[in-house]
Amino acid sequence: MDLLCLSNGHGEDAIAVRVLRALQQLSHPPNLAALPLVGEGVAYYKAGIKVLGPTQAMPSGGFIYMDQRQMWGDIKAGLLRLTLGQWQTLQTWAKNGGKIFAVGDIFPLAMAWASGADYAFLGTAKSEYYLRDETHRLPGRPSSEGWGGSIYLPWERWLMGHRHCHYAFVRDQLTADYLHRCGVVADYVGNPMMDGLEVDPTTLSRLTASFAPAEPVITLVLIPGSRAPEAFENWQRILVALESVAQTFANRSLRLLGAIAPGLNLAVLSDILQERQWQPHQSGAYPSFSRSRAQLLLTQDAFAECLHLADAALATAGTATEQAVGLGKPIFTLPGEGPQFTYAFAEAQCRLLGPSIEMIADPTQVGPALAQCLGDSDHLQAIHVNGERRMGPPGAAREIGLRISQL
């Protein structure tokens, strides 16, 4: 079987790669290729998966749906020409008998349907948790959301139930249940975001050895996001929040882990740290900075290890925040100017992730909020249970791969 993966964004690319790697491990793997509809598909290149068609990073970073004003900038940068080239690539693939695996939202789903090929869909963008929890609809949500009985709109449900759509996978059981009520056979087998988060003992030892011994200690992971220059603005707010944390926990040592996306320039983050009076020094394998009783490491190859070590996270990111929630960590988010991590994005993320996440508009208030959270054992247990329920256990990528192989 020839299988082409369509995806529409950095996070979606990373999720798709997890499933494609599971497919590669089958005894008779399909011939794989990818067509990233948004961005340049860096995750596919790193995984050694062939990329077809034209790719291009757009000024909006793919977040047109959050700010319609950015669409004109993308059009001027060649969005229409890019989409036409991708459509031609997709048509050629379908005419040659290839199958399609669409990952993301309605854009790749509609493209898969329009090609005329058989397809499977993994919906990563929508969840009933945006509208409700297990017991009731969330207060304040407009009646226009979820009309027809599901977060997925009628035309999306039609595409998911089309005879050419052999599998529709969703990100949680609550969403699958509501789709079933609407007559759509949707499967929940877990969330591929939770795959690939196993700890490497060598990396973990290297991290812990880079910190000076200290008791008592609080460990925080810092996740500024993956897109420059926005991530650098996020970093500024995170550092303001850390000043609040240091004041609140004046008698505790802080162990801080900067989980930095590989594509970001560490030198820029380092300069910002030094502008805020953090002193640089070499400590083990990672760039290290200290200020009073806090020590901060910058890492780009130890994301899973940072998550497992942390007591909590300060995060201004999408997928990485969800993964931290899935591991049972309390999250404090700091909305900014965007284009991704705006107030609207952070508010929606709070609905999606429930009690695991707290949005704080003023970074100087993070310290007291963190102290209250860490001092409430019942709340921490509820956060752990909530993370498992909303994000699921690892293993979804393999199960999705097995089913797709039957296309």
Describe this entry's structure for a reader.
Helices cover 41% and strands 18% of the residues. It is an alpha/beta fold. Helix 1 (10-24) packs across helix 16 (396-404) and helix 9 packs across helix 14. It has an eight-stranded mixed beta sheet, with helices on both faces. Strands 2-1-3-4-5 form a five-stranded parallel beta sheet, with helices on both faces. The mean pLDDT is 91.
Question: Mean pLDDT, nearest integer?
Answer: 91
What is Rg?
A: 22 Å
- Quaternary structure: single chain
| Large-scale geometry | globular
CATH topology of the largest domain: Rossmann fold
The SS-based structural class is alpha/beta
Ranges with pLDDT <50 over ≥5 residues?
A: none
Largest beta sheet: strand ordering: 8-9-10-7-6-11-12-13
Largest sheet: 8 strands, mixed
For the record, give the distance between the C-alpha atoms at the N and C termini, rounded to a whole number.
8 Å
Q: What is the percentage of strand-forming residues?
A: 15-25%
Number of helices: 16
Would you state the CATH class of the largest domain?
Alpha Beta
CATH superfamily of the largest domain: Glycogen Phosphorylase B
Summarize this entry quickly.
By secondary structure, the protein is of the alpha/beta class.
Secondary-structure map:
Blueprint: E1 2-8, H1 10-24, E2 31-38, H2 42-46, H3 70-76, H4 79-95, E3 99-104, H5 106-115, E4 119-123, H6 154-160, E5 165-169, H7 173-181, H8 201-209, E6 217-223, H9 230-248, E7 253-259, H10 266-275, E8 279-283, E9 286-291, E10 294-299, H11 303-309, E11 312-315, H12 319-326, E12 331-333, H13 343-353, E13 357-359, H14 366-374, H15 377-391, H16 396-404
Parallel strand pairs: 1-2, 1-3, 3-4, 4-5, 6-7, 6-11, 7-10, 11-12, 12-13
Antiparallel strand pairs: 8-9, 9-10
